[in-house]
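Morning - iron/sulfur cluster inputs below, output right after.
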Amino acid sequence: MDAFTKLTGVAAPLPMANVDTDKIIPARFLKTIKRTGLGVHLFDTLRYDADGKERPEFVLNQGPYRKAEILIAHENFGCGSSREHAPWALLDFGIRCVIAPDFADIFHNNTFKNGILPIRLPREICDQLMEDAKQGDNARLTVDLAEQVVVRPNGEKIRFEIDSFRKHLLLNGLDDIGQTLQHAPSIDSYESKQKAEKSWMPGISV
Amino acid sequence: MAETKPRTLFDKVWDAHVVEQLPDGTCVLYIDRHLVHEVTSPQAFEGLRMAGRKVRRPDATIAVADHNIPTMGRANGIQEEDSRIQVETLERNVAEFGVPYFPILSPEQGIVHIIGPEQGISLPGMTIVCGDSHTSTHGAMGSLAFGIGTSEVEHVLATQTLLQKPAKNMLVRVEGTLGAGCTAKDIVLAIIGKIGTAGGTGHVIEFAGSAIRALDMAGRMTVCNMSIEAGARAGMIAPDETTFEYVRGKPFAPKGEALDRAIAWWRTLPADPGAHYDTVVELDAAAIAPMVTWGTNPEAVVPVTGTVPNPADVADEAKRAQLARMVEYMGLTPGQKMTDLKIDVVFIGSCTNGRIEDIRAAAAVAKGRRVAPGVRAMIVPGSGIVKQLAEAEGIDRILIDAGFEWREPGCSMCLGMNPDKLTPGQRCASTSNRNFEGRQGPGGRTHLVSPAMAAAAAVTGRLADVRELA
Ligand code: SF4
């Protein structure tokens, strides 16, 4: 996973609530056995018409937003299925940060595992950033994870909160599994204790 | 301290699985059961392979293919190439990593959330995960069960743990007796209508109250299944005699004296008196009518006697725009009666309503009636075992004689990854759990209902109040 430290880029405004993972990447594109290559299908139904032609009105089909690295949206972003294909598609398109009033839990977890930073900010602030974003390349946002701030084009700094453990993993591009395996002795002893105390629990074999 | 403070069901199952707590409160949480399917696992196994890691507990893992597989003529193999590759990849991975697997042509095969409880793999007091959001279904057993992404699938395969912070506790209490024609599906749709699709975010919901206690295990699974549609991490129901009776005799469940010991522990799991819930919601079961969704998220739901809402009545601008979009996508007119909506397709199945009890409920309505002309009605049992049972009871005949298609088990039209899809503009009464735009096929229009309501729609050719068919 790539580390996330500081990012300055174009933010795309997506003023929609409840953007579900079926919208981010429809089920028909989940038949892949790879993590990459999903960017062209990001927001497929919003982005292309039935003949596969780009819909000019959709933000990611417009000028500077084709290179957007930040996405700004409304409430409950990423609700629905657990598909990690959603953050994979965002990442493959080039988006490294999503800002919204709140996120669905599983999606929120999944972003971190892929080096994407989800930022929760109150709705009024998201609306201000949405206005900034509407100016496209004329108004880049900076996201500084170490400082925990979003810097608006006018220089105003907006602080955001983030779980310290996740911040640490993201800043250093650390893989969770490696972290957890440092606790292998505790896992071993938990397992022996469980074997003794819950000996009724059968193993599965077919 | 944790010992003296009254604890909820969630608190107790959580506490029993904490391997270690890190300084910032993140816990290394032990996972008892890991269910694996073909869509969200290939990249996880690939990750293990690249890092030279093994599956830590193959004996706590079970794999099955369900999302992608055809529900007709599967003995001839999978025709769609990318689906076939995904299933073959799963089969290669389980062989390489020694993970137990129910092959496609075995009777044990089925939707992962149907077969867990059915096989006695999912048991009370366990932590259960799967790379699928509807893992919440297994919470009906009194377990803590939740969906995870593919990176977490890899994490569990490698370590049998997850890094998690505890969720908040929400109690949803449903008291009273359901009216005629109303089911567990109507309860959970009513709950989501009340608290909204993000109402449960950050919480684990415990469903309680006399109406929940009165449900059989199938009904409890339906309710817990849709916890995720309210945004919750998981749904749980305290284990009781109904649960223990259900577990008894299941293939992988403990037997004899081992079962007695298990039950002794399971009896300690229900919440202590005075346990604290961060949020409490109450519903009156008697006030719940058969429900039907009109829009493109499960919160957009009304009683079947209701009408399509008018976006113009909504003050909030963003909300109004969202509602208007839903009305347009669904091809509706504000004020239209739900029962005036003609149906093209009926889908009965999925992890929400693909159990034998659901198929019986559909058959009870279909018996002696015919699927309306021009309607395509399909029944997709949730597992091979469900299918066998239905055939042994002869309810497949009732349904086939009424004009329903009787298919092989899988996710099917719940998400349209296999050939079972809606075509643009088609209107479907579906017993599944998501009515998102394009969920059942691009341009498809989904109305979520109970199995009895779906059967009523099939035989009348429109959304119908099942109480009027009795
Ligand atoms: S039946 Fe539908 S909701 Fe359930 S696991 Fe399959 S695709 Fe997911």
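Note: Residues B 66-67, 111, 113, 132, 134, 350-351, 411, 414-415, 432-433 surround iron/sulfur cluster (CB under 6 Å).

O.
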